[in-house]
Every structure is written in structure tokens, then in C-alpha cells.
Amino acid sequence: MHGLVTRSIEHFARQTHGEAVWTAAARAAGVDPRGFELMGNQDDSAARRLLHEIAALVGCSPPELSEDIGAWVAQRSAIRRLLRFAGSDFAAFVTTLEELRGRARLVLRDLELPAISVAPAPRGWRITSDCDPVWLHALAGVLHAMADDYGVLAVIEIREGSILVDVPLVDFNEGRPFSISDPTVGAA
């Protein structure tokens, strides 16, 4: 697994749940509590063990934790800006998710994201991928965060190995400000 992914898990744990949780989870998972190198690669099993240990310590399931991490990652300023380049509204964002894998490779050539398919559904979309369920839950978290960012009320759930995005109300709330030319607009 790419160091960016394991480093994201690390930073999420440290910033959201504190150093004590991170250190205990890292030790229990058999990884160095000092953290991960951003550009290094880790064994997928190490990341999986780490997710299980953090989830156990904070009292949630690994899928719930993965979704929380996805939402947290999407709220990081640099990642949010990259995601917002996908479109001016939530519909454009969702329908361009199929391009995410290629866009990620433009930024990090060795980052392997799973292929994603997006199909229309009655009030939204069905998103499928043959990826690990951990990735699917992380993507659901990203979708939650981006729906909020665009000001859209979206019901996002994982069923039968896919993500169902139901959008009952497009103008639910005012979206966060965003400007391609000014990175300080909408920065948290």
C-alpha cells in the first residue's frame, strides 16, 4: 500500500483520536509508532491490522473507521482543492469519479486506486468497484464530505458491494466557497 494511504491513516488517528490511541494501535499492529514515510510502500496487511486496532480502540468497526478517514481526507485543504477541480457541482463531481484513478496517477505515478464505475440511479447514482470493502467505505466517506462541501443533501449507503447515492435535495444548504484561482477561498 502506498505510503500516502498509510500516512493518512496515521495522521487521522493522531489528529482525531490523539497520540495515545495512535501509539497503542501502532504497537498492537506491529508498525513503528514513529509513523510512516510518505513516499514509501507498506504491506497491505499492516494497514489492515492498523485499521482494526484503531477501530477497536475507538469503539467502531473498521468499515466505519474507513468511512471516517475518507471524510477526513476529503476535508484536508489540498485534497479538497484537487477533488473540487472535478466539477462545479456535486453531480459533476460524482460523474467524474471514474476519472479519479487516472487523475491520482498524474499526481503520484505509483498510487494505485481501484477502478470506479458510476451509473445513474433514480435520484442519484450507483457507484461500483471491484475494490476491497475498506476502499469502498473510504470512498463513501469522501462522498459524504463532498456532498456537504457542495451543499447537497445526499443519502449515501453501501449495499450489495456498491455505493448508492440518493440526492433528494440539491439546494439543501449553501456550499462552501471555492475558487480555482484563490486557494484561500473556502479554506478551513
Compact overview of the structure:
This protein has 188 residues and is of the alpha+beta class. It is built from eight helices and four strands.
Describe the SSE topology:
Elements: H1 3-17, H2 19-29, H3 44-58, H4 62-75, H5 77-84, H6 90-95, H7 100-107, E1 117-121, E2 124-128, H8 133-150, E3 153-159, E4 162-169
Antiparallel strand pairs: 1-2, 2-4, 3-4
Radius of gyration: 17 Å
CATH-derived topology of the largest domain: H-NOX domain
Summarize the main sheet: 4 strands, antiparallel
N-to-C order of helices and strands? HHHHHHHEEHEE
What shape does the CA trace take? Answer: globular
CATH architecture descriptor name of the largest domain: Alpha-Beta Complex
GO molecular function: heme binding
Domain Heme NO-binding: 2-120
Protein name: Haem-NO-binding
Pfam families: HNOB
What does this 3D model show about the protein?
α1 runs parallel beside α3. The two termini are 29 Å apart. Strands 1-2-4-3 form a 4-stranded antiparallel beta sheet. The radius of gyration is 17 Å and the shape is globular. The protein has 2 domains: 57 residues; 96 residues, H-NOX domain, CATH 3.90.1520. A hairpin with a 2-residue loop joins β1 and β2. It has 188 residues and is of the alpha+beta class. Pfam families: HNOB. One of its GO terms (molecular function) is heme binding. This is Haem-NO-binding.
